[in-house]
């Protein structure tokens, strides 16, 4: 798995970026604009999945683990959801298409280029009325959620950013009183690349009830999993 990632993410990608004078993320956006149906979230998701499984690997949640994400969002039926790690907007589209009228998704992205591409993909999918992209580091944005973004508590949190931020950001969510009894956290890539500190923290914490969903790394046969943690208050 590591060798495949190094090959895809570092060697192939850098060569292609140099030849085409654009980033992989820009190529994903162009493929969506040229091949997906405007205003159709499912078509946008399928088009990104097609590109990333057939042309260039990318770190979306993907189609297989996406079903776990869908099921969790449908079960929680959140009014306010938070995503940590927007990337190209794939999972934001995936979540937003399932939100009820009046619900909102706040999605946090540190990389300005990724945020700009995600904005275009989210608008193309037609879910921009439910999604707000917050640009900056998660540890700065989380403490601003209550006052600046008028969040009382979060019903659902999807962790899919830097794996070493999973634990400190979960602690920060608790310290900022952003979790209520029944709030659900869902973390991606807990096996590969892996988030062992997060699993240790969440599973040994009496405030959380955990469920593990075995799966595979997006667009690969490498073993991976998602971890769901329900906040018990």
From TrEMBL:
One of its GO terms (molecular function) is magnesium ion binding. It is an enzyme of class 2 (transferase). One of its GO terms (biological process) is catecholamine catabolic process. Binds 1 Mg(2+) ion per subunit. Transmembrane segments: none annotated. S-adenosyl-L-methionine binds at residues 61, 91, 109, 160. SUPFAM superfamilies: S-adenosyl-L-methionine-dependent methyltransferases. Keywords: Catecholamine metabolism, Magnesium, Metal-binding, Methyltransferase, Neurotransmitter degradation, S-adenosyl-L-methionine, Transferase. Gene3D superfamilies: Vaccinia Virus protein VP39. CDD domains: AdoMet_MTases. InterPro entries: Catechol_O-MeTrfase_euk, SAM-dependent_MTases_sf, SAM_O-MeTrfase. Mg(2+) binds at residues 160, 188-189. The keyword Magnesium applies. This is catechol O-methyltransferase. It comes from Brachypteracias leptosomus.
């Amino acid at each position: 798995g590591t060798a495949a990632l190094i090959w895809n993410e570092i060697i192939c990608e850098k060569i292609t970026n140099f030849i085409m004078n654009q980033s992989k993320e820009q190529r994903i956006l162009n493929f969506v604009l040229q091949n997906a149906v405007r205003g159709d979230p499912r078509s946008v998701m399928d088009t990104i999945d097609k590109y990333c499984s057939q042309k260039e690997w990318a770190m979306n949640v993907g189609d297989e683990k996406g079903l776990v994400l869908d099921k969790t969002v449908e079960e929680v039926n959140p009014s306010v959801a938070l995503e940590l790690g927007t990337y190209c907007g794939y999972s934001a589209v995936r979540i937003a298409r399932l939100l009820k009228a009046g619900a909102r998704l706040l999605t946090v992205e540190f990389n300005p280029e990724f945020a700009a591409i995600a904005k275009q993909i989210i608008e193309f999918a037609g879910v921009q009325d439910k999604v707000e992209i917050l640009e900056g580091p998660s540890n700065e944005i989380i403490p601003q959620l209550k006052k600046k973004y008028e969040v009382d508590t979060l019903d659902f949190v999807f962790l899919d950013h830097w794996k070493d931020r999973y634990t400190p950001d979960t602690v920060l969510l608790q310290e900022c009183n952003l979790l209520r009894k029944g709030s659900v956290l869902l973390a991606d890539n807990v096996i590969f690349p892996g988030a062992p500190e997060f699993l240790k923290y969440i599973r040994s914490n009496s405030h959380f009830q955990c469920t593990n969903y075995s799966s595979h790394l997006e667009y690969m046969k490498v073993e991976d999993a998602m971890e769901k943690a329900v906040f018990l208050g």
